[in-house]
């Protein structure tokens, strides 16, 4: 079968890479997003003709039919549903595009396959309810899953909600529950075959990526620090490097034992009641912390943790801040690629 993919909320094209990963025949017939910075990255990798700067709220059934799109891949904005957000759900204007699509889907006879990604939490939203109703109305069979790249030996945690849906043949796994691992695989609590973080590192990373002194002094204790022999990292979000807490891990080239020794010495200083007001003690503390050589993961390393292929590039004009924002908003290519295989077999 030749798939004709409509990629909506396309960002930097994570879904397009997932489609390639799954080695399905066919092409992405159109990609659409309102973000011109993301679209420039998309065009840099796939050519300008494939991506349109477009508000999805204005998409019409006729256009989808004219494109003869039979597969819809999308990761709509997650802010209405994130735990950190206000969870205004369908009341949030960023939900409008998805609500609009829920009206369109039952009208689009060409569509046979749908894959949607969203944040964990979406499964209990009203938006999810709307979406499932649209799929039912259009006679799709559907399944829901919450998966993370660590289940695919990628050393990055990113729990995300996925819904896969198709017309015609039903799935041969239970539809009464939300799957928390890939159907047909066993959950592997030991994760023996997980890649080490050292396998995704760039060599000769410039000092620009070192965690600055002020962040080191004030925020080091809330950082999630990863050593080369570890097999994990936390979810990278769009605020990475800008906000410290909960936006992604940082890296030290030191072994766990070496950095533990340094943090013990820092702890000793912190336990001394006079150290807080002593400039000399604070300077000693900072010098100790500098020895940990903490740095941010580079955009290339974050892209690798999101399973983007090496051929993926940013245009030279994209700033690091923009790269982190775009990657933080994107998807894990391997997880979606595996789901596409599941969807199409
Ligand atoms: C979660 S991100 C999707 C990222 C994408 N899958 C990727 O791989 O980079 C959501 C995207 O939806 C876009 N977006 C939000 N509202 C939109 C709308 N009404 N029309 C078009 N794009 C929209 C944002 O600009 C953002 O790029």
TrEMBL record:
Belongs to the class I-like SAM-binding methyltransferase superfamily. C5-methyltransferase family. PANTHER family: TRNA (CYTOSINE(38)-C(5))-METHYLTRANSFERASE. It comes from the Eukaryota. This is tRNA (cytosine(38)-C(5))-methyltransferase. One of its GO terms (molecular function) is methyltransferase activity. Signal peptide: none annotated. Keywords: Methyltransferase, S-adenosyl-L-methionine, Transferase. Its EC number is 2.1.1.204. The active site is at residue 78. GO terms for biological process: methylation. The keyword S-adenosyl-L-methionine applies. GO terms for cellular component: nucleus.
């Amino acid at each position: 079968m030749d798939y004709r993919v409509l990629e909506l909320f396309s960002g930097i094209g994570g879904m397009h890479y997932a489609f390639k990963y799954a080695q399905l025949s066919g092409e992405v017939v159109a990609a659409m997003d309102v973000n011109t910075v993301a679209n420039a990255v998309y065009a840099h990798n796939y050519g300008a003709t494939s991506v349109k700067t477009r508000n999805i709220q204005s998409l019409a059934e006729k256009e989808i039919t004219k494109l003869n799109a039979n597969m819809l891949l999308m990761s709509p904005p997650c802010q209405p549903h994130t735990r950190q957000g206000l969870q205004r759900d369908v009341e949030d204007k960023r939900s409008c595009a998805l609500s609009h699509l829920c009206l369109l889907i039952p009208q689009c006879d060409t569509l046979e396959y749908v894959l949607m990604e969203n944040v964990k939490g979406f499964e209990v939203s009203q938006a999810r309810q709307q979406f499932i109703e649209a799929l039912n109305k259009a006679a799709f069979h559907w399944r829901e899953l919450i998966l993370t790249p660590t289940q695919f030996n990628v050393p990055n945690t990113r729990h995300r909600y996925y819904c896969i849906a198709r017309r015609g043949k039903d799935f041969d796994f239970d539809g009464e529950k939300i799957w928390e691992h890939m159907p047909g695989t066993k959950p592997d609590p030991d994760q023996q075959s997980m890649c080490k973080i050292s396998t995704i590192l760039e060599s000769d990373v410039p000092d620009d990526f070192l965690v600055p002194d002020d962040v080191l002094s004030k925020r080091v204790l809330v950082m999630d620090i990863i050593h080369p022999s570890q097999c994990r990292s936390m979810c990278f979000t769009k605020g990475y490097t800008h906000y410290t807490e909960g936006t992604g891990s940082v890296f030290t080239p030191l072994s766990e034992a070496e950095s533990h020794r340094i943090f013990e010495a820092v702890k000793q200083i912190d336990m001394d009641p006079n150290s807080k007001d002593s400039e000399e003690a604070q300077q000693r503390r900072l010098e100790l912390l500098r020895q940990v050589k903490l740095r941010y993961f580079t955009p290339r390393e974050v892209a690798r943790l999101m399973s983007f292929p090496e051929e993926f590039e940013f245009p030279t004009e994209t700033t690091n801040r923009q790269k982190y924002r775009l990657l933080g908003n994107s998807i894990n290519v391997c997880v979606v690629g595996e789901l596409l295989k599941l969807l199409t077999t």
